[in-house]
Design goal:
Blueprint lengths: L8 H26 L2 H27 L2 H6 L10 E11 L2 E10 L2 E6 L8 E5 L3 E7 L8 E6 L4 E6 L2 H14 L1
Antiparallel strand pairs: 1-2, 1-7, 2-3, 3-4, 5-6, 6-7
Helix pairs in contact: 1-2
Length: 176
Amino acid sequence: MNYEKKPDAKAFLKVGLISGLFFCLFFGTALIFLYDLHAALVMGPIAGMLFGLIMGLMLYFFSKSRSVNNQSKLEGVDESEIVYAGAANHFKKKEAVGGKLYLSNDHLIFKSHNLNIQNHTLSIEINNINEVTFFSPLGLAKTGLQITLKDNAVEKFVVNNRNIWRQHIEQLINKF
């Protein structure tokens, strides 16, 4: 089985820095209106650094959690049939449901973990996929993978390495 590379400490540090910077800006702006500029310049960066550190640590421990990984494991599928797999979110209504996306020789399967409101498993036959395109969630990140089915239904996922996902899926589509 070909799993996507696990994020390293550098990736979590990057997430922590970005989230800390945004929190610093928003919190600092709020402090200007609540107190004054001096309070915003002092408390904003401190709160941003703490928030970023906490977010980075939370994401690190969440990604390493055995229970989350066990909840999103496929049952009854031989691992030799899995072409590619990795962490993903599946958009179901308005919720980005967290879990794992698996690509087998004949199916694209998403299985959520239990920390979601809408727990589910979605299985799409490869020969039912019409098109694989990209989208940007919230117009920012280039992590969206859009699967258009032959009946024009659309399933959207957020994945790491979306180019690799698309390449593997399109190779399997061309076999059918």
